[in-house]
Design a protein that fits this description.
- This protein is of the alpha+beta class and 364 residues long.
- It folds into 3 domains: 1-30; 46-232, no CATH class; 255-358, no CATH class.
- It contains 9 helices and 14 strands.
- It has helices at residues 2-27, 160-164, 189-195, 209-212, 225-232, 255-266, 292-295, 322-328, 346-358; strands spanning 52-53, 60-61, 66-68, 80-86, 109-119, 124-136, 139-147, 154-157, 166-173, 179-186, 197-198, 201-202, 215-218, 221-224.
- Strand 6 and strand 7 form a beta hairpin.
- The radius of gyration is 25 Å and the shape is globular.
- The protein starts with a helix and ends in a 6-residue tail after the last helix.
- This is Cytochrome c domain-containing protein.
- It comes from Flavobacterium sangjuense.
Amino acid sequence: MKKYYFLSIAVLLTFIIFISCSDNDDEYIPVSPVTVDLTLVPYPKLSDYKFFEGEMKDQIPSLNVVAYEPASALFTDYASKKRFIWMPKGVTATYVADNKILNFPVGTVLIKTFYYTTIQPGNLTKIIETRLMIRKADGWKFYEYLWNDEQTDADLVAGIDFTNGSTKNITFAKPSGEIVTTDYRIPSDSECFACHKINEIETPIGVKPQNLNHNHIYGNRSKKILQKLVEEGYLDSYPSSIVSAVDYHDTTQPLDLRLRSYLDANCAHCHQDEARCYYRPIRLPFGQTNVDSNIGICLVADEEISPTLQKVITPGNFSKSIMHYRLSSNDESERMPLLGRTIVHDEGVALLEQYISSLTQRCN
């Protein structure tokens, strides 16, 4: 009898433990592994932040690391890019305007990885670099991480290396199939600042509502990026109607919107008020290029390149348009953008040619 008594007690205790564990499981709340101590960053290795789970090279975001993609992206020698946002718990970004970056709180990290899927020989996938912008109390800070050849991690580029920048020789296939070899540029601190500044203050570029008001795949669902940020607790709200840029690759969109979106992504960070090229007369942010003179149509240039190149855009004749000349050039003293590319963007030039050829107005 005593034996069965102790057996019954043991069964009861097992049942109580099972119920207790089940209750705890129901209440379990997953915790993001990401760690960003603003007093210690930048960390020596990208893996120290724990932004990604599994193998680093797979770029699978950890819990609360949100992927995003602008409607139109900056061209960087045909590199593909993956972008992510992480914010500390309990803080939220706010909407400012369609064409202004979200007002991010201190602690926010913007993550941008550059990689190729056609490295030769063999069309290999290779990550080149990951750039971080971290919002500290005294403003945004830039940190550059260079991936190792084993593709297991990325090391902080610091000191004299970040001051001077560097290059990495790569051979890859363009979308056209053409094989190209180039010295891919790893930017210096000053080069980062040259593009990422407004009124001499460091600032992000692409995280504006006009660029994020479209769908992205999250898991197996397509969801608007701005809505995903709201659901994540990263954004308080946004207007129901946003004047938005489009994907310049999308031929179903009007030609002028495609070109304006392309110029916004590739040129507007310099050609706007209080930016690097503010002294030039053109203004290329998406919200301003609906004005002919801002985009350069019939605008007499404030520079002399050659007698046949007098206007930024000469309607119907791209061969006499300075904008076309600069986008087509690979000369460091003449090309546009000045930074971020070492080769010509064929598809961008073709888009500009199509746009200029479509213009029928005459200049005075």
